[in-house]
Design goal:
- This protein is an alpha+beta fold.
- Among the domains are: 112 residues, Roll (Ubiquitin-like (UB roll)), CATH 3.10.20.740; 227 residues, Rossmann fold.
- The protein has 13 helices and 24 strands.
- α11 links the parallel β20 and β21.
- The two termini are 29 Å apart.
Amino acid sequence: MPTFKIDGKEIPFHPGDTIIRAAWRQGIEIPHYCWHPGLSVAANCRMCLVEVRSQRPILLPVLVWDEKKKEYVEATKTKLQPACQVEVTEGMEVITQSPAVQQAQAAVQEFLLLNHPVDCPICDQAGECKLQDYWLLYQKRLKRKETEPVHKPKAVRFGPTIVYDAERCIMCTRCIRFCKEIVGDPVLDMRERGNKNEIVLAPGRELDHDYTLMTEHVCPVGALTSRDFRFKARVWFLRTVPGICAGCATGCNCWVDYDPRHQRVYRLRPRDNEEVNQYWMCDAGMLSYRSFHEGRILTGRLWDGGGYTEISRKEAVAHAVRLLESRKALALVLSAQASNEDNYAAWRLAQLLWQHKGATPQVYMAALGGWKGDRILRNPDNNPNRAGVMAIVGNQAQPKGLHELVRAIREGQADGVLSLGALTAESVEMLEVLRGKAHINLSSNIGPLPQSATVVVPIATFAETSGSFTNAKGMVQFFEQAIRPPVGIRSGWETILEIAKGMRLELPIRSLAELQRALMSHTTPTVSGTLRAPSS
């Protein structure tokens, strides 16, 4: 692979790479605002100016202050070039930290901050704002401008999810390019010139496509803010773990931002993975964190013939054990919404029960019915782990739909049901027949399955445990625990081990690591794609 030098360090590059992209691939940050690895080059912020010493220098005439003569004198300086626009050539030598570069960076910073409001105490971007970061690195001095800054519209509603503050905007045009190039909806544009620039909506339009929150995410300053996250949390109080979006079968890689003081998740952000989601997420995926806290089931629930009675989790597990012990023809309902670990543990328990009772395996799958897909990220299958369920079951017994389970119960082929998860395309009314046939459901949230169960055992959400999903490409992707589950609640697979122990059945699983090794050994022959280990 060809190489070039940055500040004396030799690094490789791909043909066609610009200086900034080649550096970015190696984890070297050249300061920038308008450049983004997934967007076209604008080269308008001028923050990424560098000195290319391997080429014949272009000298520019300048006036510099001569302290001895106490006047400006003629001199020359090397013309700097934008790293986002200049393609790398083999043997090129680039300097990013020379006095000329540092002076240019300081000047760009000062220019961008001339009319910028001092909103940092109330700005949601504070703590992760490039203006703050680069001021500390490249400027470190107060404004010299003493006149009143230019004032522009503030808190402009761009649509149902986004608010715009024109005074904070540095006109990097990332939001415009994202809407046009990635979404294919040029709903944003720029008007006026100079210090009167501002971003505007197309006449008669709102910012209302399926990726509006990404337009906020690509903003390097606090000009675009999400109405969902606005004034909710300060980023310096948040901690982050790698996660996987459970919104659809794409399996977008994301960061889960949570407050450890309150054990609450506040947002999901895209995590770069060029093989899966590149740098993006859709709105539905970024807002899916809400299910970690809304509609939760925090106690056991027991159907008493006329309604549900809340019981302790321990009592719910005991009821589940008694019901499973009394059934002879058990039907297992795996979930395309549940993790590989939960599904595999349930599958192993059901196998033991079928063998112990000499019953015929009956496997079904609960899944949502699909949504509007697109050419960008949204897979038409809005279940994160359908491929994982299919790989776990393999060729032994392909799972059927829940409408077939209802028919099997009515025909007397099944007298008990063990199900995972809350969501399915079928309605509660259709599934009510399950309640009369000893339906044990393990779920973290309310939904059709727990609403049609005889006993519900609460379990942890994805944010409260570690595990994996298998996406539509067959890639096994791991997510890590962010917050603690509510007191007394455990993950789905741990709850299944507890039920097995209560039934005096031995599952050869004692830890998450053992479970994942057994799972990978079981599914590897039927899963294609890449196995991704959890990040440290």
